[in-house]
């Protein structure tokens, strides 16, 4: 019973934390509760051309993760099979899995072994539409259904809170004028109409929109409007 209360207490802390660092600490504590001493949490988009971010415990081979991300090994990692679907955890031993590998997969496995990341388990999670998260744990061979349920819940809560904090930060980085311009743009006004309403030049409106795109890391006005709308919705 005390064990159940302990994990319930950890889960409830997600809503009480007020920073990214805080929710990361909670997630790590939950993983360590299940003896996940060396793990990495990663989120991918369905296109599989971008690693959204990673979260490592203190004991995970960080140099290996840096190489894994830098070389985009996740694009060819066979452990990320059936991307976009829920399936049982994958137990792997890279020294034994040698059949049917492509040349790049052989390189991935060889280098992973060099960093003592040769055995473990990868657990898939569906976090939200268009993306999927995985936890990879070193030297772990099994997980019970209750632990899997809790980790699924913890993963959902972690991403939900993370999105909230990042959305607040995104909006906070805009100046009052940029926020004003973007709000009017989201209402369907043209640059000329915005300029007239705010009593500034049309070129100034364009200048603000260019700066906003840089701050929101977007490459088009449509993408900018979409990201701004999502951020506003999440912040509210």
Q: Which helices and strands appear, and what pairs or packs with what?
A:
Layout: H1 2-12, H2 20-33, E1 39-45, E2 51-56, H3 62-70, E3 90-93, H4 103-114, E4 119-128, E5 131-138, H5 145-172, H6 176-186, H7 191-198, H8 202-216, H9 221-235
Describe the structure concisely.
The protein has helices at residues 2-12, 20-33, 62-70, 103-114, 145-172, 176-186, 191-198, 202-216, 221-235, and strands at residues 39-45, 51-56, 90-93, 119-128, 131-138.
Could you describe the 3D structure shown?
The chain has 236 residues and is an alpha+beta fold. It folds into two domains: 163 residues, 2-Layer Sandwich (Beta-Lactamase), CATH 3.30.450; 63 residues, Arc Repressor Mutant, subunit A (Orthogonal Bundle), CATH 1.10.10.10. The protein is built from nine helices and five strands; from the N terminus they run ααββαβαββααααα. The mean pLDDT is 87.
| H-E string | HHEEHEHEEHHHHH
Under CATH, the homologous superfamily of the largest domain reads Transcription factor LuxR-like, autoinducer-binding domain
Number of strands: 5
Largest sheet: 5 strands, antiparallel
Q: Any idea what the CATH architecture of the largest domain is?
A: 2-Layer Sandwich
Mean pLDDT: 87
CATH class of the largest domain: Alpha Beta
Class by helix and strand content?
Answer: alpha+beta
Strand content: 5-15%
Shape descriptor: elongated
> How many H/I helices?
9
């Amino acid at each position: 019973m005390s064990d159940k209360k302990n994990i319930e207490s950890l889960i409830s802390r997600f809503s009480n934390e007020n920073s990214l660092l805080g929710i990361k600490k909670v997630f790590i504590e939950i993983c360590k509760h299940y003896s996940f001493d060396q793990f990495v949490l990663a989120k991918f988009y369905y296109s599989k051309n971008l690693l959204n971010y990673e979260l490592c415990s203190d004991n995970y081979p960080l140099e290996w993760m840096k190489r894994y991300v830098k070389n985009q090994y996740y694009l060819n990692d066979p452990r990320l099979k059936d991307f976009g679907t829920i399936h049982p955890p994958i137990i792997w031993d890279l020294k034994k899995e040698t059949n049917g590998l492509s040349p790049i997969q052989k390189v991935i496995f060889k280098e992973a072994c060099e960093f003592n990341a040769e055995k473990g388990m990868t657990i898939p999670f569906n976090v939200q539409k268009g993306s999927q998260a995985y936890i990879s744990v070193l030297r772990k061979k099994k997980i019970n259904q209750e632990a899997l349920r809790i980790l699924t819940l913890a993963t959902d809560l972690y991403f939900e809170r993370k999105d909230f904090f990042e959305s607040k930060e995104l909006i906070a980085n805009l100046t009052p004028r940029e926020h004003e311009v973007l709000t009017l743009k989201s209402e369907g006004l043209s640059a000329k109409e915005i300029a007239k309403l705010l009593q500034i030049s049309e070129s100034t409106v364009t200048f603000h929109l260019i700066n906003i795109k840089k701050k929101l890391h977007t490459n088009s006005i449509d993408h900018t409007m979409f990201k701004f709308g999502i951020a506003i919705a999440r912040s509210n």
